[in-house]
Write a structure and sequence with these properties.
By secondary structure, this protein is of the alpha+beta class. It has 2 domains: about 55 residues, no CATH class; about 130 residues, no CATH class. Helices cover about 35% and strands about 25% of the residues. It is built from 3 helices and 14 strands. The protein has a 5-stranded antiparallel β-sheet with strand order 3-7-6-5-4. A 5-stranded antiparallel β-sheet has the order 8-12-11-10-9. A hairpin with a 2-residue loop joins strand 9 and strand 10. The longest helix has about 35 residues. The chain is flat. The chain starts with a helix and ends with a strand.
């Protein structure tokens, strides 16, 4: 009888230990999955130019993209955007990354700070600078020159903020649109000598405004020839 009691006691103890191990393993698995999905990412506060927004640090991985993300093509590469954060596919996961210089996109982050350099407006968010170009906004290198958070006075030859809106007439895919925008951008730069990605530093605002208008006309002509309506 004593042997049976001991045997039953050992069995109950073993069962309890197995259940406890299962609970701990399940908890660790849930934490690991939460970490990978982005709920516990390391974040930093971006306080440049009074932006004051928190973002996950680059180089971290997630398994699933946030709902409502947007897709942007750059050449043959695909990037994903959500809430000011850029993601790049890597295997079966996605890494938080920086967008490439020269990428043209039809939107700005939901929150950004506007700065002015040499009469040009730049839009800043999450350590990325954007400037307005024909067909959308261009990811650019950090601008060189004196930075102001106030726009230039209207009497100083302020640059026109006209933007081209592009509509595909032939049902072009998003990837095709991205390729055409980039190739037309390169052609417009070669024709006008003006690159909104790398505008000349220290040039008078009136001169920059004229060169920008020339670039936009060249960009619009190129896109029109490729089957887009440009307004």
């Amino acid at each position: 009888m004593s042997y049976l009691r001991n045997k039953n006691g050992y069995f109950a103890l073993g069962l309890m230990l197995a259940l406890l191990s299962g609970i701990l393993l399940f908890g660790f698995t849930q934490v690991a999955q939460a970490d990978e999905r982005g709920f516990r990412h390391n974040e930093f506060m971006d306080s440049h130019y009074g932006h004051n927004r928190s973002y996950p640090s680059r180089g971290q991985f997630i398994q699933a993209l946030p709902s409502g993300h947007r897709v942007v093509f750059y050449g043959n590469s695909r990037y994903y955007f959500h809430g000011g954060v850029w993601y790049r596919p890597q295997g079966r996961r996605f890494v938080i990354a920086a967008p490439p210089f020269g990428m043209i996109l039809p939107f700005l982050p939901p929150y950004y700070a506007t700065i002015w350099v040499g009469g040009l407006p730049y839009y800043y968010a999450n350590e990325v600078y954007y400037t307005q170009g024909a067909g959308g906004y261009v990811v650019v290198e950090p601008p060189k020159g004196e930075v102001s958070q106030a726009p230039p006075s209207a009497g100083a030859g302020q640059m026109s903020s006209d933007q081209l809106f592009i509509y595909p007439r032939q049902g072009q895919s998003e990837q095709k649109q991205a390729t055409d925008r980039y190739e037309c951008h390169r052609w417009a730069v070669s024709q006008t000598g003006y690159d909104p990605i790398q505008p000349p530093a220290g040039a008078p605002a009136a001169h920059m405004s004229q060169k920008r208008a020339d670039y936009q006309r060249a960009m619009g002509a190129c896109l029109d020839g490729r089957g887009y309506t440009v307004k």
